[in-house]
Specification:
This protein has 511 residues and is an alpha/beta fold. It folds into two domains: 349 residues, Alpha-Beta Barrel (TIM Barrel), CATH 3.20.20.80; 70 residues, Immunoglobulin-like (Sandwich), CATH 2.60.40. The chain contains 15 helices and 20 strands. It has an eight-stranded parallel β-sheet with strand order 11-10-9-5-2-1-13-12. Strands 14-15-16-20-18 form a five-stranded antiparallel β-sheet. It starts with 5 loop residues before the first helix and ends with a strand. The structure holds alpha-D-glucopyranose (GLC). Alpha-D-glucopyranose (GLC) binds next to loops.
Length: 511
């Protein structure tokens, strides 16, 4: 039997470089050397891999998701030598490194776009999507951009007299993937980082790269929604097959996990192809699901029905684009129970840095707001120590999340009852259990307000139960079980009492 590829049993930890840690002499914006200096935290926690959000050269209109050179490090984050050193030191600790690949668009300051807009006959003109104004004037179609309300996905370029397409900011013109030179150039970017030793890519907005050649108007049902949340063109699948061949041609299990921002699990599943497209695809509906058992049952039904037959699922409850779980669900108890959920469902979990501290989003006053998409709160800096400055070398670029004196890495590490220790116990329990890492999943009949399931691989079996209600609930399970990990830290190692406290979750093992 072929060995299981690492990414099927891994827990992948997302780092947003600006917000993780700066290095000595730093200016309050996190950098690659800051990450390297804190790798101890990741090994202590027990994650398997890191995914780094973009650290490439960028004018920072979208804080790095507007790339002006894919093959260099922005001076804010350091140098290519810092990237090499980070990759090497992570590998020396057994941590895999996944980097972001922003394929749908570039910065408007990227030399390709600078050339493209210089004239209609320029070498790179067709690398982007240009159209004449609509017959009566105005944008070529009704597509809407992300960020802001009702913003056209087109900006008029006075000098060359045409509109260019941007599903995100005007500073992020969309690449034209129907131009073969674009695909080649973006494959060169992949090769550049593979040759530097990265273990894979998180492919940004990857469902958006193929465009309807007719650029038809969005129909009434989806008109007004950002096109980046509905674009689902067959051309993308061909590009993903080519990407997959490229990755699979390299030694080692290099992975591509795609951000498929279509809030429909059946559609997300199609991006696994016939096992020849994405290795993994983000499935976001669970991230937008309230803390309610019935809603979660539905999400799990969808994952079973659509994802499991298509490929290996992923679980994402948090990232740099959305309020944190502690903020969304409203209490630390729930954030703790959500940690159990994230780390025990069948699939590869993505853990966003800072959730292990139970961080809440920062309250960002309007005069300090920076992100055009209103996402500053979840990007607040990670507090490392209790002392003023919290381990940073200058005032960070965004305000602290609430309560940094108590909610920081040092203080939570010193407190065995903290949420950070809960994450560590869960990660250790996963590593020790083939069932939790990669086993089959079967949901159990459970009373209202609860979700329970088993995971099994050979003789190894675990049961998991989550109480989504604010009241104690009874749950009887066939057989004899002991509590291995509980979200409130209570009764671990003791026999399962067939009762679950309010907003708590447990991992059980057979006695
Ligand atoms: C993805 C990223 C987001 C970014 C957008 C445009 O959704 O996660 O942060 O703004 O793509 O690149």
């Amino acid at each position: 039997m072929a060995p299981v590829p690492w990414w099927r049993s891994a827990v992948i930890y997302q780092i947003y470089p600006r917000s993780f840690a700066d290095s000595p002499g730093g200016r309050g914006v996190g950098d690659l050397d800051g990450i390297r200096r804190h790798l101890d935290h990741l090994t202590w926690l027990g994650v398997d891999a890191v995914w780094l959000s973009p650290f490439y050269r960028s004018p920072m209109a979208d804080f790095g998701y507007d790339v002006s050179d894919h093959c260099d490090v922005d001076p804010i984050f350091g140098t290519l030598a810092d990237a090499d050193r980070l990759i090497a030191e992570a590998h020396a600790r057994g941590l895999r490194v996944v980097v972001d690949w922003v394929a749908n668009h570039t910065s408007d300051r990227h030399p390709w776009f600078v050339d493209a807009r210089s004239s209609r006959d320029s070498e790179h003109r067709n690398w982007y999507v240009w159209r004449d104004p609509a017959p009566g004037g105005g944008p070529p179609n009704n597509w809407r951009a992300a960020f802001g309300t009702d913003v056209p996905a087109w900006t008029f370029d006075e000098a060359s007299g045409q509109y260019y397409l941007h599903l995100f900011l005007p500073e992020q013109p969309d690449l034209n993937w129907s131009e073969p030179a674009v695909e080649q150039a973006m494959h060169d970017v992949i090769r550049f980082w593979l040759d530097r030793g990265v273990d894979g890519f998180r492919a940004d907005a990857i469902h958006a790269i193929g465009k309807d050649p007719a650029l038809a108007d969005d129909p009434p049902g989806s008109a007004g929604l950002p096109r980046s949340s509905t674009n689902d063109d067959p051309a993308t699948h061909g590009h993903l097959r080519a990407l997959r061949r490229l990755l699979d041609g390299y030694p080692g299990d290099r992975v591509v996990v795609g951000e498929v921002y279509l809030l429909d699990t059946a559609k997300v599943a199609t991006y696994y192809g016939d096992g020849d497209e994405l290795h993994l695809a983000f499935n976001f509906p669970p991230l937008y699901t309230p803390w309610e058992a019935s809603a979660w049952h539905q999400r799990l039904d969808e994952a079973e029905r659509h994802l499991a037959p298509a490929g290996w699922p992923t679980w994402v409850l948090s990232n740099h684009d959305n309020p944190r779980p502690r903020t969304r669900y409203g209490s630390e108890d729930r954030a703790r129970a959500a940690a159990v959920l994230l780390l025990t469902l069948q699939g590869t979990p993505f853990l966003y840095a800072g959730d292990e501290l139970g961080l809440e989003d920062a309250v960002v006053p309007p005069e300090r707001a920076l992100d055009p998409g209103g996402r500053d709160g979840c990007r607040a800096p990670l507090p490392w120590t209790a002392a003023p400055g919290h381990g940073w070398h200058a005032e960070p670029w965004l305000p602290w999340p609430p309560d940094p004196k108590r909610r920081n890495v040092d203080s939570l590490r010193a407190d065995p009852s903290s949420i950070m220790h809960l994450y560590r116990r869960l990660l250790a329990a996963r590593r020790a259990s083939p069932a939790l890492e990669r086993g089959a999943m079967q949901r159990l009949a459970s009373p209202d307000g609860l979700v329970a399931w088993t995971r099994s691989e050979g003789d190894d079996v675990r049961a998991v139960a989550v109480n989504f209600t604010g009241a104690e609930r009874a749950l009887t399970l066939p057989g004899d079980w002991a509590i291995e990990v509980s979200s409130d830290g209570r009764h671990e190692g003791r026999p399962w009492p067939s009762r679950l406290g309010p907003d708590t979750a447990v991992v059980l093992r057979r006695r």
